[in-house]
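Format is sequence with structure; example below:
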Amino acid sequence: MITAKATVIEENRDAYLKLCALQVENSRLEAGCLDYGFYEDAMAPGTFIFVERWRDQAALDFHFAQRYCLDFIRAVRKLSRAASPIEIHHVTETTTPS
């Protein structure tokens, strides 16, 4: 699982949303993508959280090697006021409460 967070100033919001929507669309087309989304923090307008789930490390490696992904990371950093590093979480088990 991957998480990241970015804060965008209002004047960059429209460009940022378009860029992120395209990234989600492209990523979801990859065979190894289980889930990919970005969500605005209801308590901090302009702050977006990214959550991605990938089948395995090979799928993630493939994703990060795609030109559109590399371009997205560079473009998002330019539009963001503040961005956290991309964090990769190694999850060994997921359970659902009964």
